[in-house]
Design brief:
The protein has 13 helices and 13 strands. The radius of gyration is 21 Å and the shape is globular. It has a single domain, classed as Alpha-Beta Barrel (TIM Barrel), CATH 3.20.20.70. It has helices spanning about 10-15, 45-60, 65-70, 115-125, 150-160, 180-190, 205-210, 215-230, 250-260, 270-280, 285-295, 315-325, 335-340, and strands spanning about 35, 35-40, 85, 90, 110, 135-140, 170, 195-200, 235-240, 260-265, 270, 310, 330. The two termini are about 40 Å apart. The longest helix has 15 residues, at about 45-60. By secondary structure, it is α/β, with parallel strands linked by helices. Helix 2 packs antiparallel against helix 4 (about 115-125) and helix 4 (about 115-125) crosses helix 5 (about 150-160). This is Radical SAM core domain-containing protein. It comes from Symbiodinium pilosum (Dinoflagellate). GO terms for molecular function: catalytic activity; iron-sulfur cluster binding; metal ion binding.
Length: about 350
């Protein structure tokens, strides 16, 4: 495995298109369909340039690491609407009542993923379902990427991925220091890579009931302030909306005053384990959840590990209306926040932000 003509040049130079190495034969093109959606011409890098970067990384890492990257899940994951997930760790110790992670992992201290930054970058580039520089990257699918146990690995992954220019999004409840936020902002500007942060705040009044082990809301608002001051796009992640929790206006006002530019108003997912925890809450209107389940033909006793979306549309409409009145960009999906920050629609043909984004 070798990258002919690349000696003395960094993978950053290659990825950013400034390398002088001879490029592979032209005529290679991206597939017409990726992840079930038609492709477009928004990719900044050609397949030939990406092929060159792959060869360079293979030579840099060696056969063992290249094989590890090729066999890793990142090389074959199907992107979701929000993008392709980079998994920097597994599990979470915050143990929020509504969290869906426990359906896959126990609520324990998370552990970092084994792949190095360059290995996960190579694994991503092997993935035929994802187009570098066009398709989005997300962190936070099965962990909090800025949990103290995972922050170092997450920053390593972000540093490896930013030269691609693919819009990056992460979601967190953790406190992120100002130096770390400033580093993220610097990488975003240096590599012209949009980074969108989602900071989860579902309630102010009922945190001890719903999120007893998570960092405080004030810690999260400090994170919003620091990320915003660093020049990043920051949305408050109001996911899930909690039936019975009526302090959403206070959440939106706190988000606005802390520097957030928008809010993601997301739905609740319910499985057997999640429902059992929510029943123990003093905050959640469990009867409202029961009615919505029954409207779907599901009795609460019939719930399994399969997660069911609870779409409380009247509540969602009220939250989005209040957010807009405060001057916050209100969206329904995480990928819409990433699209807004990047000023580029997501892969979905019916991306809700296509008509909002000004070109």
């Amino acid at each position: 495995m070798s990258c002919r003509g690349c000696r003395g040049q960094s993978e950053i130079e290659i990825a950013s298109g400034t390398a002088s190495a001879a490029k592979p034969t032209s005529g290679i093109s991206w597939p017409k369909v990726v992840g079930g959606e038609l492709t477009d011409d928004l990719a900044a890098f050609s397949p030939a340039e990406v092929s060159q970067l792959v060869e360079f990384l293979e030579a840099k890492l060696g056969t063992h690491s290249a094989r590890k990257a090729y066999r890793d899940q990142h090389a074959r994951r199907q992107p979701i609407a929000c993008g392709v997930q980079i998994i920097s760790g597994h599990s979470c110790s915050y143990a929020c009542r509504y969290c869906y992670i426990q359906d896959w992992y126990p609520f324990i201290e998370p552990t970092p993923t084994e792949l190095s930054g360059h290995e996960v970058l190579l694994s991503l580039l092997y993935n035929p379902n994802w187009i570098p520089s066009r398709d989005f990257i997300i962190l936070g699918d099965v962990c909090d990427p800025f949990h103290p146990n995972l922050e170092v690995r997450t920053m390593e992954y972000v540093r490896a991925a930013v030269p691609l220019g693919s819009p990056i999004q992460f979601s967190t409840k953790s406190g992120i220091s100002r130096p770390t936020c400033e580093q993220l902002g610097q990488w975003s500007r240096t590599f012209q890579c949009p980074i969108n942060a989602l900071v989860t705040i579902t309630t102010l009044k009922h945190v001890e009931d719903m999120e007893p082990s998570a960092p405080s809301v004030e810690t999260r608002l400090d994170t919003v302030r620091a990320l915003s001051a660093a020049g990043l796009s920051v949305f408050v992640f109001m996911r899930p909306l909690l039936p019975g929790s009526c302090d959403y206006l206070e959440v939106l006002q706190a988000a606005k005053s802390s520097g957030a530019e928008g809010v993601v108003v997301g739905s609740l997912r319910v499985s057997r384990k999640i429902y059992r925890r929510l029943r123990q809450s003093k905050t959640v209107d469990i009867e409202s959840i029961d009615r919505q389940l029954q409207d779907k033909g599901i009795e609460p006793s019939q719930l399994t590990e399969e997660q069911v979306d609870i779409q409380d549309e009247p509540l969602r409409a009220a939250v989005m209306s209040q957010a807009s009145a405060l001057g916050l960009q209100a969206v329904r999906r995480a990928c819409c926040a990433n699209a807004f920050g990047a000023q580029m629609p997501c892969r979905k043909a019916r991306c809700l932000m296509r008509e909002v984004i000004s070109w």
